[in-house]
Amino acid sequence: QKEVEQDPGPLSVPEGAIVSLNCTYSNSAFQYFMWYRQYSRKGPELLMYTYSSGNKEDGRFTAQVDKSSKYISLFIRDSQPSDSATYLCAMSDGSNYQLIWGAGTKLIIKP
Amino acid sequence: ETGVTQTPRHLVMGMTNKKSLKCEQHLGHNAMYWYKQSAKKPLELMFVYNFKEQTENNSVPSRFSPECPNSSHLFLHLHTLQPEDSALYLCASSRKSQGSSYNEQFFGPGTRLTVL
Known about the structure:
The complex is a heterodimer of chains A (111) and B (116).
Chain A: E1 4-5, E2 11-14, E3 19-25, E4 32-38, E5 45-51, E6 54-58, E7 61-66, E8 71-76, E9 85-92, E10 100-101, E11 105-110
Parallel strand pairs in A: 2-11
Antiparallel strand pairs in A: 1-3, 3-8, 4-5, 4-9, 6-7, 7-8, 9-10, 9-11
Chain B: E1 4-7, E2 10-13, E3 18-25, E4 31-37, E5 44-50, E6 53-57, E7 64-70, E8 73-79, E9 87-94, E10 106-107, E11 111-115
Parallel strand pairs in B: 2-11
Antiparallel strand pairs in B: 1-3, 3-8, 4-5, 4-9, 5-6, 7-8, 9-10, 9-11
């Protein structure tokens, strides 16, 4: 079993839709949860960062962490074609530098 | 230049060639990383350098040889690679590589490597 499971997609939705991206994990020691966005021909960049459980909102983006279910989500409201990218989840237990990554979900927003 | 830069952006090499990838960070960070990214697979951490000292080598084959002459520069020397080594090689940096909190990693655009 992989430590972090993420559906690679692609996920294709129409412009304006609400997008839900998800990761599940097996290690209950994870405390730091990140979402990175990677555009084509670019490196990943940090989009959202959450410590422990709960929700965090930043504009059209909301990150949710449910530690009891070992499940994290990223919601995108009013999706735009410019949101088309690969979204990678990453996690850490905070004890060292290592991030445990999901495989990334390729998201396509159709105009 | 700002952020993390990588050269070359694309590289095609034969299995008997020797080449090097270069990474430079302009962020004043102390930790630098090499990752391998293959399609539909999680990022694979290859090497970590903290204050120029290698702190991690995740069972990477010896045909990959890292070099970190200072905190701003990182190289990955390649020789006698295999076709399965074809991938996107990403360099990243962060303020530090150890500690009890999370440090954001900043990535370069990557080098797309094709081994024939």
